[in-house]
Write a structure and sequence with these properties.
16 helices; amino-acid biosynthesis; D-isomer_DH_NAD-bd; oxidoreductase; six-stranded mixed beta sheet; alpha/beta
Amino acid sequence: MTVPVLTSPDQPRTTPLRVLICDEMNPGDLHHEGFEIDYAGNLPREETLRRLSGYDALITRSRTKVDRELLEAAGDRLRVIGRGGVGVDNIDLEACSRRGILVLNAPESNNVSAAELAIMHLLAAARGLTRSDRKTRAGEWDRKFLGVELKDKTLGIVGLGRIGSIVADRAQGLRLKVVAFDPYVPENKFERLGVERATSLDELLGRVDFLTVHTPLTEETQGMIGARELARLKPGAIVVNAARGGIVEEAALVEALSAGHLFGAGVDVFVEEPPTPDHIFLNAPNLGITAHLGANTYEAQERVGAEIVGRVLAALHGDVSKGAVNAPALDAKTLEALGGYLDLGEKLGRILAQLLPGAHDLEVTFRGEFPADPAPVVTAALVGYLSGSTDERPNMINARALAKERGLNLAVREVQDSPDYQTEVIVKVTSGAEGEKQRTRTVGGTVFGRSPRLTRLRDYRVELAPEGFILIASNQDRPGAVAKLSNLLGTWGINIAGMALGRAQKGGQALFTLTLDDNLTPEQLQAIRDLDVIDSAFLVRV
């Protein structure tokens, strides 16, 4: 799709561009030359449906549901929708994209407020604030409760993105030692923040006195802190979840509190909001709860209102460099020429994100003659590599900015010859602190017609469609490895949909890939690694 641009600053209009703000916020100055901005906070849905066809842009918070009914009522004039804040759960992105409507958000505005709320929950849990408040209001003057100090303790942070980084800074001001786990963040960011890196979640959990999570909710992070993980924490630990409901399993958290394993906890988010009157959190011991207030400060509301208005106005003039959620900055001709390569680039990036997350360098090599300037394929590779590792949804507009923010260096090479294929895209990522051994992973691919094909894994030639679950295994080039692995998969009822083999030389190290119909559990993957014919095994989902 093309970016919706109504005009540019150099193309004056005889009529102003009209913007409707239908949810309550502090939008700042509403007087901008060339624009007519109508603020109608908490506008009834029926009134929004009636009025929307007369506007070029709509700005909402979470209250207004931007669904097909609303988009149809908007007609053909609406071109931009701005969502004040981070989430876009109330917006049908697919329907907006099909209608050529650009969706923007303003995720940075709430960062400080969200981080400070997490620190508040940590302090409140450490001193039994909610417990003492409840007892005192009930007429019980209980001074026997002993809290814990934060000074010289260790705070574990899961997710060192924007909010997690602010939490780390504030925690260090409270004299806490900070350790973090985030496989998607390069080493130089840990060094810059003065935060120790945990190599695994298990390592982090076993070391910390307090735990706070600041990661987006994805398939990978859903339920990542469950009963097993909570049991690994030290007795008397404190857990805070001010990120997304479901990252910390609700029932497991209540059980750990009730059993006395945890000293306390603080929660700002629920799986279902608002919670039902019988929700298990409401009667849990030593648990402080707030009503998803992370963004609710005067300062954050002022920032988010003014910021989303500014981004919407800029987008209406063609500047979509900030906050774009759904639209690639490509024209239809480029999309037609590079469509298969864009898909390939994103899949190569997604594979590498699972093989070597947290890289500090990403290099893309183009071999052969491409049907158009392949530069957008670099951005597509970044989209794939960053997917699932950042609070913002990476896309063709914001991926380079997100990569820069993550400390991911980018390099591009072009080579005229392509000895094996007419064209080939090779993506390599590198990680490892300066002075340490560098780790690299390389994948490559080409396009047949419009269908991507994987052609290279490390130094091995393969050829398979990058789809579904791909098991990548290395072994010594001797008979029997594939048969043993196939038999093991058969005992689990897992079907092999495709296979590709590669080797550097006869009798040396070899590599083979199996495309599976189903996912593998961590225990099944470990059983594969334990086979005497397998040197290493990884599973990626494309």
